[in-house]
Specification:
Elements: H1 3-17, H2 21-43, H3 52-80, E1 85-87, E2 98-100, H4 103-110, E3 113-114, H5 120-124, H6 131-144, H7 161-167, E4 171-172
Parallel strand pairs: 3-4
Antiparallel strand pairs: 1-2
C-alpha cells in the first residue's frame, strides 16, 4: 500500500463521517497540540526544591504543637479523672487502706463545684462567673452561713434566673461537714 492509496482511504473515511472542513481543521489542530504537549512532557523533568532546613523547621513546629496538645490533654485527664491516694496512717493490720480524694479531686470526679466550699478560683471556672460574682457568692455564703438550696443563688446581686440556669449543671450543694465517698 502506497502513500497515495492511504491518503485516499483516509479522505473517504473522513467524508463518511460527514464533518465539515472547519471541524476537520479544529480536530487536526487539537491533535497537534496534544502531540506537542505529550512530547514536551517527555523531555521536561520536574524538579522539586527540597530544603532540609525548611523541613526541619516544619518538623520542629509540628513537635512543639504536638507537645502542647499532649500537655493540654494531660491537664484535662487530671482535671476530670482524679488519682486516688491511699493513706497508710489510717490503716491497721486487719483493715483495708482508706482511699481519700482531696476536695479538688472530688470536684473533678463529679464534674460539679460545691458552692458551699468552693474557692473564688473554683467559682470563676464556671461560665459567666467572674471575679466579682465569685466574691459576691462567697460574701453571701459567709453572711448567711452557706446556701440551703441552689436556687438561693438568685439572692446574690447580679445572678438572675438565666445565669443560674446556665451554671446549674455544673454546681452542687453539699454540706461541707460531709466527707466524700
Amino acid at each position: 500500500m502506497n502513500f497515495n492509496n492511504l491518503k485516499r482511504r483516509t479522505f473517504f473515511w473522513i467524508e463518511k463521517l460527514q464533518i465539515s472542513k472547519n471541524e476537520r481543521i479544529a480536530f487536526t489542530v487539537l491533535l497537534v497540540v496534544l502531540a506537542v504537549i505529550f512530547s514536551l512532557s517527555l523531555f521536561v523533568q520536574k524538579t522539586y526544591n527540597f530544603s532540609q532546613e525548611r523541613y526541619n523547621e516544619i518538623t520542629a513546629e509540628f513537635e512543639k504543637r504536638s507537645a502542647l496538645i499532649k500537655q493540654q490533654e494531660k491537664e484535662q485527664e487530671q482535671k476530670y479523672n482524679p488519682t486516688l491516694t491511699v493513706t497508710d496512717s489510717q490503716t491497721t493490720d486487719n483493715e483495708e487502706p482508706v482511699v481519700q480524694l482531696e476536695q479538688e479531686e472530688v470536684k473533678a470526679s463529679t464534674g460539679k463545684i460545691n458552692i458551699n466550699t468552693a474557692t473564688s478560683a473554683d467559682l470563676q471556672s464556671l461560665k459567666g462567673i467572674g471575679e466579682v460574682y465569685a466574691r459576691r457568692i462567697i460574701e453571701y455564703r459567709v453572711q448567711n452561713g452557706g446556701f440551703d438550696s441552689i436556687d438561693e443563688l438568685v439572692n446574690v446581686k447580679g445572678i438572675g434566673e438565666k445565669r443560674l440556669e446556665n451554671i446549674r449543671p455544673y454546681i452542687t450543694l453539699e454540706d461541707s461537714t460531709k466527707t466524700p465517698h
